[in-house]
Design a protein that fits this description.
There is one protein chain. By secondary structure, this protein is of the alpha+beta class. It has 9 helices and 24 strands. The structure holds 2-acetamido-2-deoxy-beta-D-glucopyranose (NAG) (10 copies). The site of one 2-acetamido-2-deoxy-beta-D-glucopyranose has 5 residues, from loops. Pfam families: Glyco_transf_92. Keywords: Glycosyltransferase, Membrane, Transferase, Transmembrane, Transmembrane helix. Its EC number is 2.4.1.-. Belongs to the glycosyltransferase 92 family.
């Protein structure tokens, strides 16, 4: 008689009410338990490591040791821009530390430290985060993101490997983290202390684009005029700021960058060095970077990600470019209009993305040789403007996904690589921009080393005229000639 347990309609109604109340209470209890367990989890995260180490301190010293933020003269500096930390198993080089409380980080804030470490699996270390205006600090366990891939080579101990060290802690509403030190065993003297970078816009609004350029190494080549053409074109396309990292450059290029930095604020230049025992005298470093290609690429990860993290709150997108590359929109007159249309397009088809990538196409030197008809109309362009006078490109794009450059979304990525995002809050999604909308024009003497065998067939034989860049010709010629005269570069 399972089906007839109710004797009357009213009893049935009452029980139904009771059942509803019962379920409502059950739900409240579950919600209550969940909320509290989450809260307790956060507290544990906060205090566990802290208490642990405090207990250990008492054990070791018979009293709590007073750790103080190290004075600058006690810091173990390395090659000017780095700090060294010698652990019991591996040497760490810290470059910069950043405050990450982006929405996708959830209830946690994270201090992220860009580093090179001479181990593939570094040992367990702790972060001590110092807050402004309070003497005490908190301690959290660090975790690692390896910002390289085993397949790319140099996957071995002793060679410096790029890492992002993460120090997560519960978000603090009224406390601002100012410094971070890393250590292995508490109560030992701390000899590293990194100021936590947390660049915010003055008016709360993000700007659209910044471009970052890895460490410039042009000791003898004078590319100053090409540099001017490139910077002006980026500015015409809507780039608000270009961040350069610099090893060594020709004095003429230096003059150009200083002009932009001093007079227009369009450019920011930051000196860079290689950490550890890698060479830093100009000639030796140049040779090293030319010959040790994998080491060079591992080192390049640092400026790429440094530039990304410095700007996560300031720009919507970061683009990493070399000074011989430019992303040309083919239907719009600037990047902003193009990205705006792409954002609408992907929202319409309900697809999210961490990066939008532009296909790579070669504009090689001498593609116009043996062809007299090509030279027509070039006379109106000054011959010293490299991009405006190189209007022949390969017919074929390099293959999809190779040598691309991306617009990196600043809300969604944890680590960037030269071409695409390496680590994202969720699985990285890079969407390719249709070649009818934009492509990456790469101006080179010849193909990159890996493609040199097939260069003649794939990239030189089939060529076409592509004057898309001429849509920006008038303002580009005007701006460059004005500046060249100003800097006395035109005779
Ligand atoms: C504290 O000491 C215990 C053992 O005494 C050890 O397992 C633990 O790793 C230590 N914690 C820290 C933070 O040094
Ligand atoms: C150092 O760490 C590596 C793993 O990264 C391990 O294989 C090695 O045994 C450790 N050496 C010492 C002395 O603990
Ligand atoms: C710390 O905060 C108090 C009160 O807000 C203020 O009076 C004091 O000057 C601050 N000290 C420092 C070092 O900022
Ligand atoms: C730019 O500013 C720096 C530092 O103030 C100065 O040394 C340099 O001469 C300036 N260069 C130019 C081109 O204005
Ligand atoms: C968009 O995608 C999400 C999951 O990716 C899905 O839940 C949602 O229903 C989709 N919306 C539309 C309008 O297709
Ligand atoms: C020369 O250029 C013209 C115009 O782009 C093209 O039609 C022609 O095929 C080219 N000739 C050679 C030999 O490449
Ligand atoms: C050269 O310029 C003229 C007028 O500016 C134009 O009509 C012609 O199509 C151009 N020729 C080429 C090959 O672009
Ligand atoms: C390059 O384009 C030509 C058509 O012009 C095509 O026949 C050839 O297969 C392409 N090569 C590659 C490597 O895609
Ligand atoms: C690129 O755009 C063209 C024209 O708008 C369209 O025909 C083509 O299907 C698109 N390709 C891809 C891969 O979306
Ligand atoms: C660059 O500097 C050199 C001297 O180092 C000078 O002779 C040359 O004319 C300069 N180039 C330009 C374009 O001004």
């Amino acid at each position: 008689m399972v089906y007839f347990i109710f004797k009357s309609r009213s009893e049935f109604r009452n029980s139904r009410k009771n059942i509803l109340i019962f379920f409502f209470r059950l739900l409240s209890i579950i919600a209550f338990i969940l909320t509290w367990s989450y809260f307790i989890f956060l507290c544990l995260l906060h205090f566990k490591t802290n208490n642990n180490s405090l207990q250990n301190l008492s054990k070791q010293q018979g009293q709590t040791c007073r750790i103080q933020s190290p004075e600058s003269i006690k810091i173990d500096y390395n090659n000017i821009y780095w700090q060294r930390f010698q652990s019991s198993n591996g040497t760490f080089f810290f470059y910069n530390a950043f405050y990450d409380d982006r929405t996708l980080n959830g209830a946690l804030s994270t201090i992220r430290i860009l580093s090179m470490i001479d181990r593939i699996s570094p040992i367990k270390i702790y972060c001590r985060i110092w807050f402004s205006n309070i003497s005490n600090s908190i301690i959290t366990l660090a975790d690692y993101h390896y910002i390289w891939s085993q397949q790319w080579g140099n996957y071995e101990d002793k060679i410096l490997q790029p890492f992002l060290i993460n120090c997560p802690f519960p978000r603090q509403k009224h406390l601002q983290p100012y410094f971070v030190s890393l250590f292995e065993k508490d109560c030992t003297e701390i000899t590293n202390n990194l100021q936590i970078i947390n660049n915010r816009p003055l008016n709360k609004n993000k700007q659209s684009f910044a471009v970052c350029v890895k460490g410039l190494e042009f000791l003898h080549d004078d590319l100053s005029i090409r540099l001017i053409e490139w910077i002006e074109l980026l500015n015409i396309l809507g780039v608000k700021k270009i961040f350069f990292y610099e090893f060594d450059i020709h004095p003429n290029m230096s003059k150009v960058l200083q002009y932009y930095q001093n007079e227009t604020k369009l450019v920011h230049v930051q000196k860079l060095s290689l950490p550890g025992s890698q060479p830093n005298s100009p000639l030796e470093r140049k040779k090293y970077l030319q010959q040790k290609i994998i080491h060079r690429r591992q080192n390049e990860i640092i400026p790429y990600n440094d530039c990304y993290y410095k700007n996560i709150y300031l720009y919507d997108y970061i683009v990493l470019l070399d000074i011989d590359e430019i992303i040309i929109p083919l239907q719009h007159l600037n990047w902003l209009d193009m990205i705006y249309d792409l954002e609408k397009y992907f929202a319409n088809i309900n697809q999210s993305y961490d990066a939008l990538s532009a296909r790579h196409i070669y504009f090689l030197d001498n593609l116009d040789e043996n062809n007299n008809t090509i030279q027509s109309n070039l006379s109106i362009v000054p011959s010293y403007l490299h991009m405006l006078t190189h209007i022949y490109r390969s017919f074929n794009y390099t293959k999809s996904g190779s040598y691309i450059k991306s617009f990196f979304h600043t809300e969604r990525i944890l680590a960037v690589h030269n071409h695409y995002p390496l680590i994202c809050f969720s699985k990285c999604q890079t969407r390719e921009i249709n070649v009818t909308l934009a492509h990456l024009q790469h101006y080179r003497k010849d193909c990159v080393y890996l493609l040199q065998k097939s260069c003649q067939n794939d990239h030189r034989l089939n060529r076409i005229r592509d004057t898309n860049i001429w849509r920006f010709k008038n303002s580009l010629i005007q701006r460059t000639s004005l500046l060249l005269r100003k800097l006395n570069f035109l005779r």
